[in-house]
Amino acid sequence: xxxxxxxxxxxxxxxxxxxxxxxxxxxxxxxxxxxxxxxxxxxxxxxxxxxxxxxxxxxxxxxxxxxxxxx
Length: 71
Description:
- The chain is an alpha+beta fold and 71 residues long.
- The protein has one helix at residues 18-35, and strands at residues 40-41, 46-47, 56-58, 61-62.
- 25% of the residues lie in helices and 13% in strands.
């Protein structure tokens, strides 16, 4: 099912690098999950207040590679 969001525009305004950006994202997330399979988010997440570029200003997490061990 195609993703209908407009992050990379569409039609004649389609970003030429959108496939590369998606592939980079998949690789980055996959590698993160391989390295830190037991990661967990902790309290303190803070959303950025801008309108155009939404996202987190802070997203605290504990990264661990094995049970009971923090990286």
